[in-house]
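QA checklist item 7 of 12: single-chain prediction sanity check.
[x] sequence parsed
[x] length recorded as 207
[x] structure emitted
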Amino acid sequence: MGPNPSTPTDNPTTTSPMTTGIARFMTWLYTKGSPPEIEQAVLRLMLASGIIFYFAFLTFLVTHEVGLWTEAEQQLAIGLIGFWLAAIGVVASLFVWPAKSVARRIAGMLVDVGIATFYLWLAGANGVWMIPAYLFIIFGNGARYGRRYLFACQALCLMGFGMAGFSVPYWQQHRTEWMALLATLIMPPLYVSALFRRRRGRGGEKA
């Protein structure tokens, strides 16, 4: 004897009110706001939160106390907390002013380049890892907002790394490596900018 066709054999998928509310809010935010800014802000907050949780893991599960950190590590932790708070602030601004905002784009750019430069100045040899981070920030801004933002972000990165070459002892002692990495921040963005221009044309630039 088969099942009653009028009686469903499987439970229908249910969605919690919280999930529905979040979905509706995100739909509203994407409708009213600037999707590239939303993506950038959410990505920034996710990265900042991941780094903060990593440091918390090292502190409470490995070293058990902040006192075991070096002075540079403690300064870096303070800087990362500031980065995390700034990322939260940028996301919070989307609630108040979801529409496109040049000021918010510039603020986000300053936050991203600022924390990368801050780490580069403190980390010595490990600061070399900020060169890929610089390029990631430059290309991300260029892809989302246009070539003007790419060049503006590139200028900030060159300023930060350029000053490090004259102020940070490690880079003063490794001038050849510094010059090679400086060229890395100059040539690839120019090439990518040319590709953006060819692909988008004059009408493709975003305000």
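[x] summary fact logged: The chain has a mean pLDDT of 81.
[ ] second reviewer sign-off
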